[in-house]
């Protein structure tokens, strides 16, 4: 019931796409997605694709076409669609309770609409504590090279992906970068016998340089996602937690990508036995069926904001208008039920392992695969010209491989231009409902795409 030529032309003429060069659309027309079902989407021209990145940006964790979510959202909207979160609503209360059951040690949920916004709230919580509890000290927030925390000016100020931020300065003061932890591209002079601990100690060095009394929080992705799918090495997280405790620094973990099952546990940090003070989440919270994000804190953090005297701490002076939309928590509640009822955490762990092993199997055939890594259904394939020197392939090679996959009906992703100019990692984040057959199809498409691309190099 739509005219596909009209839709594509209207889009081409009026829609400003995200993160995209538009010149090519003048020739080929933009891609317009018109239908989704399970792991598959269809475009306006009738092409079918297997989506190995869950809506391009690792979002649709439970897959497309979930009528049970749509029904719950519809029922909620006709009953009560909106009232500001200055008051409560039924799905927000029910979802919060269910979410907190999965997050031992955490207790309060603050609703907003996007990952960036959830992180902004976290930063504001840290800043208010700094001003009201520490006499304006401890306003600094540490973030890590290669991590990404959002698209607004403050969250970009807290993002370690230089290529995507340098156009947008000047940045917000008091965000300070710390070194990354990536064993495959470890820093020169690193102690490789205990790299994780060494990398965590680099954070301590920055803390001591800046002065611990000036630092309020350390903000980290549990596994760096867009920056190259990088899991920190053994020993890193316990040492990070120890450092935060020693210097009275809040640990803020950004679960926007890893949250809600992506890596085979409810949250990424739960692999590493650390207890955060603040956790932010967005994408998988409602799998894209509604816009919702959460900033979750411990009761200890929340307690500070219960002070009645406004001259002292007072309350949190923040509101997000659409944090009061009930569609978000109504969708999120059913989304969590699906993950539980269909055992999707376990499936993500099992299929992720299978996918990585299959991809590693391609290494004997394709010299350009330098590293295959990740956890659960978050997978990175770093491409190099030479395995010994690890010289990265040009960005155009990754683009060509993604293009071939697309022509063969499989949508894959690539990381942001994250590490200075480095952009040589394919990334995969298929829905948690993936089957072995789906994974085989993805691996075959990548295998063929690499062969095709390399033959023309
Ligand atoms: N944090 C992380 C780790 C992300 O990957 C992203 C988005 N890719 C964000 C925050 C920002 O989320 P949003 O685009 O919803 O603002």
TrEMBL record:
<keyword id="KW-0808">Transferase</keyword>
<dbReference type="Pfam" id="PF00202">
    <property type="entry name" value="Aminotran_3"/>
</dbReference>
<dbReference type="InterPro" id="IPR049704">
    <property type="entry name" value="Aminotrans_3_PPA_site"/>
</dbReference>
<dbReference type="InterPro" id="IPR005814">
    <property type="entry name" value="Aminotrans_3"/>
</dbReference>
<keyword id="KW-0032">Aminotransferase</keyword>
<protein>
    <submittedName>
        <fullName>Aminotransferase class III-fold pyridoxal phosphate-dependent enzyme</fullName>
    </submittedName>
</protein>
<dbReference type="GO" id="GO:0008483">
    <property type="term" value="F:transaminase activity"/>
</dbReference>
<dbReference type="InterPro" id="IPR015424">
    <property type="entry name" value="PyrdxlP-dep_Trfase"/>
</dbReference>
<dbReference type="InterPro" id="IPR015422">
    <property type="entry name" value="PyrdxlP-dep_Trfase_small"/>
</dbReference>
<comment type="similarity">
    <text>Belongs to the class-III pyridoxal-phosphate-dependent aminotransferase family.</text>
</comment>
<dbReference type="InterPro" id="IPR015421">
    <property type="entry name" value="PyrdxlP-dep_Trfase_major"/>
</dbReference>
<keyword id="KW-0663">Pyridoxal phosphate</keyword>
């Amino acid at each position: 019931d739509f005219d596909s030529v009209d839709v594509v032309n209207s889009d081409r003429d009026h829609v400003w796409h995200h993160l995209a060069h538009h010149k090519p659309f003048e020739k080929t027309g933009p891609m317009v997605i018109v239908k989704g079902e399970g792991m598959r989407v269809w475009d306006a021209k009738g092409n079918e694709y297997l989506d190995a990145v869950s809506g391009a940006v690792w979002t649709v964790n439970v897959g497309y076409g979930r009528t049970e979510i749509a029904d719950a959202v519809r029922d909620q909207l006709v009953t009560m669609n909106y009232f500001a979160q200055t008051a409560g609503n039924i799905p927000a209360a029910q979802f919060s309770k269910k979410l907190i059951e999965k997050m031992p040690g955490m207790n309060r949920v603050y609703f907003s609409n996007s990952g960036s916004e959830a992180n902004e709230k976290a930063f504001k919580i840290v800043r208010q504590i700094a001003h009201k509890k520490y006499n304006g000290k401890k306003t600094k927030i540490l973030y890590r090279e290669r991590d990404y925390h959002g698209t607004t000016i403050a969250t970009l100020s807290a993002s370690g992906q230089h290529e995507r931020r340098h156009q947008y300065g000047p940045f917000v003061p008091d965000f300070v970068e710390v070194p990354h932890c990536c064993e495959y591209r470890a820093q020169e002079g690193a102690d490789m016998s205990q790299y994780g601990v060494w990398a965590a100690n680099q954070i301590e060095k920055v803390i001591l340089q800046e002065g611990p009394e000036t630092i309020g929080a350390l903000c980290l992705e549990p596994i760096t996602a867009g920056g190259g799918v990088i899991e920190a090495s053994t020993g890193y997280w316990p040492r990070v937690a120890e450092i935060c405790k020693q210097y009275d620094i809040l640990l803020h973990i950004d679960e926007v990508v890893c949250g809600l099952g992506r890596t085979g546990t409810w949250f990424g940090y739960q692999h590493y036995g650390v207890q955060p003070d603040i956790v932010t989440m967005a994408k998988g919270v409602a799998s894209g069926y509604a816009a919702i994000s959460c900033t979750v804190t411990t009761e200890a953090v929340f307690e500070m904001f219960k002070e009645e005297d406004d001259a002292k701490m007072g309350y949190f002076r923040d509101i997000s208008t659409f944090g009061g939309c009930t569609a978000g928590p109504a969708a999120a509640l059913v989304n969590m039920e699906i993950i539980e009822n269909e055992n999707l955490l376990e499936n993500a762990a099992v299929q992720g392992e299978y996918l990585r092993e299959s991809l590693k199997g391609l290494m004997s055939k394709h010299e350009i695969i330098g590293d295959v890594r990740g956890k659960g259904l978050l997978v990175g394939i770093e491409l190099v010209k030479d395995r010994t020197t690890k010289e990265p392939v040009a960005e155009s090679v990754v683009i060509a491989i993604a293009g071939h996959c697309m022509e063969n009906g499989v949508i894959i992703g690539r990381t942001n231009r994250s590490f200075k100019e480095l952009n040589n990692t394919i990334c995969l984040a298929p829905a948690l409902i993936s089957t072995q057959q789906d994974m085989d199809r993805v691996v075959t498409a990548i295998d063929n795409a690499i062969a095709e691309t390399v033959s023309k190099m």
